[in-house]
TrEMBL record:
Cofactor requirement: Fe cation
An MF annotation (GO) of this entry: dioxygenase activity
Alphabetical keyword list: 2Fe-2S, Dioxygenase, Iron, Iron-sulfur, Metal-binding, Oxidoreductase
InterPro entries: Rieske_2Fe-2S, Rieske_2Fe-2S_sf, Ring_hydroxy_dOase_asu_C_dom, Rng_hydr_dOase-A
PANTHER family: CHOLINE MONOOXYGENASE, CHLOROPLASTIC (PTHR43756:SF5)
Its EC number(s): 1.14.13.-
Pfam families: Rieske, Ring_hydroxyl_A
Protein's recorded name: Aromatic ring-hydroxylating dioxygenase subunit alpha
Organism annotation: Chromohalobacter beijerinckii
Transmembrane segments: none
Amino acid sequence: MTDTTPQAWAEQPAEKALTLPSRYFYDPQLFAAERDRIFMSAWHFACHVNELAEPGAFVVREIFDQSVIVIRDRQGELHAFHNVCQHRGNRLLNETRGVQKGVIRCAYHSWCYGLDGSLRAAPRSDRIAAFNVDDYHIPPVRLEVFAGGVYFNLDPNATDMQTLFPGAEAAIREAIPDLDAMQLIQEDDVIVPANWKVIMDNSIEGYHFQLSGPHHVDLAALIDFDGYRLTHHDNWWTYGAPPNADAKQAYGVSLDRPPGNGDGFFNIGIWPHNTFYQFPFSQCMGTFMIIPLDAERSILRFGYYTPHDTLPEVTKASMRWMNEELGPEDIELNISVQKGLHSLGYDQGRYMIDAARSNESEHLVLHFHRLVFQALHGDASTPQEAPS
């Protein structure tokens, strides 16, 4: 009989390993454990730092039932704090982004806060005994700037990003030379009826590139697929390839120059759910954030950034291609997998991992699953069962 304990799963050799059991992708109790043990102490990408260039510029980000304001104050400092009035719990800002010209005013009782979260005024507080505005500062949220991105973390004791992801910033800067000049072009949220891990799994393997839909085949044709490499580090991973030197067009646009620096296909994943990528020849950077809603629904947040004042035609074409062709093709695969995972005829499959860790090997999927597993169960030698 096959040993199905968590310890047995963790001890599998990669080349013979079976996937996580299907319940890991739809069980509400396991999802609740992921919420508490993964996402409540994770670093969440809020925006590129250039989106907050202007004093008062802000973005509001949500994870589960938590809402966070990230904002630049008049002195140029960045702050993150909970999006909640300290009077009766009203949410302060409902827009996703904007520029706060004055104080942040609660629409309920007009308590007013500075851009650092400090209470500046509360109507009638002068008539209230022992009322001190310093007692009602909005609780701050951990914030870091990493590789041009602004991140927040709901755990005040979380390990800093440079320690968690050593080498990741250098990797992204090497692949995307214009990282610091990026400006947001467009951002869209799409709700997908699939577990967040199903979506991540699809994005971190090359096995299906030349085997699934026509748009994946189109992408493979733009790269040197023999040079496609998938590499994992402790808490981050990269996958990509050099551009196809013989490509004459990309996304329906003619290429009038040979490949140059920054024209390759590059993806970097920052545990657990942040992905930054660059399609070949696209001259832009994409962000692909998987934001879990529940055990079987996720938000995909697609962001597009450019260093150019005027968008090149190939950039416009690559965005259309992602939004209208490759993206929907991937989403349909995600939905189909999520449905199939409920089948009585399936529980575990086989990771297709070869000894060479080739361009079609699924070793990144296993690495990602091991990170999830470790967060849920602890060290394999002393397994701690997650809810089942």
